[in-house]
Amino acid sequence: MFFKGQNEKSAYDFAIVGLGNPGAKYEGTRHNVGFNCADVIAKDHNAKLSKNKYNAFFGEINIAGKRCLIIKPQTFMNLSGEAVVPILKFYKIQSENTIIIFDDVSLDVGRLRLRRKGSDGGHNGMRNIIEQSGTDNFMRIKIGVGKKPHPDYDLADWVLSCFKGDDNAKITESIKTAAIAAECIVNNGIEDAMNKYNR
What we know:
Blueprint: E1 14-18, H1 33-44, E2 51-53, E3 56-63, E4 66-73, H2 81-90, E5 98-104, E6 112-115, H3 124-133, E7 139-144, H4 155-159, H5 166-188, H6 190-197
Parallel strand pairs: 1-4, 1-5, 5-7
Antiparallel strand pairs: 2-3, 3-4, 6-7
Helix pairs in contact: 1-5, 2-3, 5-6
């Protein structure tokens, strides 16, 4: 649960959160695949993420009769929780009904990993959400962006770099698949989605 003692029903069935950094200089970087996925989901449903409150852009879509809030925090990655948590509280959306989509440097480009809940896995955006909310009970879709080219390579420089060559096609397809996986979670549950899309 996310709201202790909170029994009021939310107007939304799910929240789908794509993590990233705002601004043109970060477009196309490894750290912004969550943003890209949120944009794909919104576009597929002819929705605009135009509301600008709580340091986030967000909008509403309908997936098979279920109302979903799509959220793109604008606080920069390391402070994602400062945008996400107030929105979830305001709309009374429970953590277990929240899907967070973000990059994972431990996975090869093109791979997806879905989880029901768990630790931040070393991801600063996820860490801040867990710290701000006091729970790790968030569903998540991790999009592989590739490991650092060598151990001494600065991690911040790596996640803020852009994809090159064949990786561009791989990540584009992976983002589209992640968007489908998010809809599968809404339609059929996390277990079904994990069976289909974990690879």
